[in-house]
Amino acid sequence: MPKKIASVAAFTEMVKRKDITGVTIKKNADSVKYKLRGGKYLYTFVLNDVSRAAKIRKHLPEGWKIHDI
């Protein structure tokens, strides 16, 4: 069962973890979903502001697998 991330601060802390290996980004008409693949869980973060989503994408680590849907 996926775990939900509630805030941007929690998301940035989650990105720094060593067991996170990749991210799937799903863009809808009014929101963007980030799905982080952890060692044990899948973590999801929903951002309703599309303009902030582009800024967050720039701060993702370079070695990750990034899948856009």
Please specify the SSE layout and strand pairing:
Elements: E1 3-5, H1 8-15, E2 22-27, E3 32-37, E4 42-47, H2 50-58, E5 65-68
Parallel strand pairs: 1-4, 2-5
Antiparallel strand pairs: 2-3, 3-4
InterPro entries: Ribosomal_eL38 (IPR002675), Ribosomal_eL38_sf (IPR038464)
Keywords: Ribonucleoprotein, Ribosomal protein
Family: Belongs to the eukaryotic ribosomal protein eL38 family.
Please give a structural write-up:
This protein is 25% helix and 36% strand. It is globular and about 30 Å long. Strand 2 (22-27) and strand 3 (32-37) form a beta hairpin. The chain has one domain (3-68): Signal recognition particle alu RNA binding heterodimer, srp9/1 (2-Layer Sandwich), CATH 3.30.720. The chain has helices spanning 8-15, 50-58, and strands at 3-5, 22-27, 32-37, 42-47, 65-68. A five-stranded mixed beta sheet has the order 1-4-3-2-5. It has 69 residues and is an alpha/beta fold. The chain has two helices and five strands; from the N terminus they run βαβββαβ.
